[in-house]
Design brief:
The protein is about 35% helix and about 20% strand. The chain is α/β, with parallel strands linked by helices. The protein has a single domain, classed as Rossmann fold. The protein has a 7-stranded mixed β-sheet, sandwiched between helices. The chain has a two-stranded antiparallel sheet with strand order 1-2. α1 runs parallel beside α5. The longest helix is centred in the N-terminal third of the chain and has 18 residues. The chain is globular, with a radius of gyration of 19 Å.
Amino acid sequence: METTNKIKEMVKQKYSEIALQNKETNATSCCGATSSCGGDNVYNIMSDDYQKIEGYNPDADLGLGCGLPTQYAKIRKGDVVIDLGSGAGNDCFVARHETGPEGKVIGIDFTEAMIEKARANAEKLGFHNVEFRQGDIEKMPVTANVANVVVSNCVLNLVPNKAEVFKEILRVLKPGGHFSISDIVLVGQLPDSLKDVAEMYAGCVAGAIQKEEYLNLIKETGFTNITIQKEKAITIPTDILKQYVNDDEIKKFKDSGVGIYSITVFAKKDECCKPGSGCC
């Protein structure tokens, strides 16, 4: 429990700092979706381009994502959408474009500074159906069976108890609801010589777990129709790797199939759940 609380406090402190920085500073930091840590070149390591996505607002984009979950989330007009780790509101505003003014979007974030920034952005845009709540996504400040859709972008990898988050997602979704989540996972064990490099350059992968374990958590929680909607390798550029390991080690690593991946996962809550679950 003490370790869990320390991790949460570290995340809260880091993302409080990020909330006060501009996108360029964030994106090239060691927790951003691009990186220049330790080198002169800036690389687009994780991020996808939001600029052609309807509802995108540059002021709300801090450059911290690893996918485009709202693009795959099958959001309909009038839906209630919850965004986990909503940051400055980027995915919430994209989701709001899909729900229309008749829907509702709830962003949940652990960090007070992020909540304040997101609320300011929503006010500036005149969105009265987008709400931001401060809270822990392991215990969401939301009643059961509220949401049609849950989205999240590169957040669960930061959470110590991922199983609890998936249980909470199941609780807040309406029967028949679904989620679309972009996150960082691992395939195979990274060599010790590359672990520190990966954590430095690939956007805070320290909390990422094995892909198979991640998908099993979703299945064990009780979700169905589990589908990987998108998958891409997170590639650390060779000139960066050469600062830490030799050519033979780089070749061995690249040929091994071991690596860091961004996945966007879809899963559904059954129309009627198990007896005693309280969802039907």
